[in-house]
Design a protein that fits this description.
The complex is a heterodimer.
Chain A: H1 2-23, E1 26-34, H2 41-60, E2 66-74, H3 79-91, E3 95-100, H4 104-117, E4 121-123, H5 130-133, E5 140-142, H6 147-160, E6 165-171, H7 174-189, E7 193-200, H8 208-217, E8 221-225, H9 228-240, E9 246-248, H10 256-262, E10 270-274, H11 284-294, H12 304-321, H13 325-332, E11 358-364, E12 367-370
Helix pairs in contact in A: 2-12, 3-4, 6-7, 9-10, 12-13
Chain B: H1 3-34, H2 41-61, H3 67-94, H4 102-123, E1 131-132, E2 141-144, E3 147-150, H5 151-173, H6 175-185, H7 187-192, H8 197-223, E4 225-226, H9 230-245, H10 250-269, H11 278-292
Antiparallel strand pairs in B: 1-4, 2-3
Helix pairs in contact in B: 1-5, 1-8, 1-9, 1-10, 2-3, 2-4, 2-8, 2-9, 3-8, 5-6, 5-8, 6-8, 9-10, 9-11, 10-11
The chains are: A alpha/beta, B mainly alpha.
Amino acid sequence: MKLNKRIGLTLGLLLIILAGPAWAKEKVQVAFIGPLTGGVSAIGVGGRNSADLAVRLRNADPKAKYEYELVVLDDECKPNTGVQVATKAAADKKIIAAAAHYCSVVALAGVDVYHKFGLPIVVWGAVHPDITYGNDYKEIHRVNGTMINQNEVAAKFVKELGYKTWVNLYDTTDYGKGMNEYFSKYLTANGGKILGSFGVTADQQDFTAELTQAKKLDPDVIWFGGLTPLGVRIRLQMEKLGLTSQFQSCSGIISDAYVTGTGELAEGTIAFREGEPVEHLPGGKWFMEEYNKAGYSEAPDAFGPFAFVAMNLILDTIEEVGPKRKAVVKRMENIKDYKSIVGAVTFDEHGQNISPAITKYVVQDGQWVPWQDSEYAAGKRQLKRR
Amino acid sequence: MDIGLIAQQTVNGLMLGLIYSLVAVGFTLFFGVLDVIKFSHGDMLTWGVFTAFSVYLGLTLIGLAAPVLILVIVALVAMAAIGFLGAAIAKVLIIPLKGAPPLNTLLITLMLGTVLRESIRLFYPDGANPKHFPALLPDWSHSWGHFTLRFDNALMLLTGLLMIVLVQLVIKRTKLGMAIRAVSQDEETARVMGINFNLVVYVTFAIGSALAAFAGVIYVLYYNELSFNMGLLLGAIGFSAAAVGGFGNIYGAIVGGFLFAMLQSIGAAALPFASAYKDVFAFGVVIVLIAVKPTGILGEKETERV
């Protein structure tokens, strides 16, 4: 009996010593910043869930050195709110790094803050080139592509479809203006003709005046550079005015909200986005399985996989160099062929991932379908004016 | 410029002008009876729209399928609810402050507007996101060249104009209207003549607020979309329209509303610079007009209001 007791005690102590490191793991905070309310919140919430998934999977991994805690902040897709939450995250020394921003205007407003406080961020959705290329900040990185690549592909593609004339509408934020600048540049280079272009304010409700002018110009295509809420309004109001032109837009409207907002009118809308659809991604199937297993009530939406990769990259880096901002920044200078579910990630000297593929999308039966998989490409359905 | 295009821009402008006018009439009614400016008026419109949307969801839930019947119920419930809310606000916030400086009422209603707006954002299910309002009217349309006339737009315009005429008739031809006019001319004398001052104020606020709800219903039928902050700019525009037309004068509010819409259309369609500046242009012209004629285009005469 006595012996048994002793053995029991020894075993117990041994167990405590062995198990010790497991529950004594150091807690590390990382942040996710994105639009959780407002017109593009569906994308923000999908991104948050995906980043959360990365953290959950890591915490479930017994090999992980740290226990991670996700701090979630809402930038509302508004620059002023964005700067506030950026400052909040950056000033909190407990937060080591952040996966941040879907909206370009917010990211542009935030980069100075991150640089000033030395908080490393990985952008997971915003596409304006200047976020990475407009500065020399070592803290800023991006896993998704920029609008330059997107518009180059878009302009070439629509020209090949046989369209000749365009009327451009764009919101007058940095995002919309950037989109307009690059799309127009590549479109005219490919021989497309822009009959008119209209800048509109980012919260405009009524587009009938602009669209009536567009109707007179009678373009093959109405192009819109901006985000979902305006995209929905423009598509709805095109119909009210009897405009029969094809509707083309950019990555800003690729969301489930665009389809629900426009209903049947969404059919045949074309748009372009960096990266590939989840199911075509190298790790897309695995990602969706894990995502569904975790039981989130909202879809990962368009940029979920990028948010997942951004957060995973942050976690991998912290595992490697420890929970220190400076060390993380330094390590991220040399990310090369980092394996991820969106393919290999390699940062150039501006922290920009240089291998983003562009996918063409068309709405078919209420879904954003990659062009090559659609009935439009197969010739079973026709876009307008072809 | 070709004629179809002008016709189209005119119809666009008329639709906008109608909505602005309906909002402006509310501002002018409140100013008429109490000399107050109620800055929460735009957000009352938003509440009207969200009430309408909720009623619509409720009706489809119980299986009502006739769109026109749904629309009538939706509009009536929204107007009744917001009319009641308007009267309640008058009782609780506006009348108690009658003796205080007008600035207080202005500030209180400004804050009330924020409360109304934010409470939709925070407490309405998924309230921060824009929502889709279904087309409840048939989408018949006919095109002549660049001009497309939609049946629903024509119907909305007609109903809206009828509503304005109706309000005008109530104010000019009925006993109630006479009481409203009496109160706006001289409160003391009206009281002496046996007019229930408080009741007249409640009714006026109910009418003005119900008009805002009505404008809101037209608005969502036209744009098929609603969001928690839609009333903010509409309130500002309605206020400017009432000011430029001449406070206290219903015709002034109507003229102001259509004038503002016309300026926006010109700003977007006819001026060479980017249409993003159309609001800047419209508000700029309004500033000039008010500077030139501070009492408004149809400035109120000393002896008569409303």
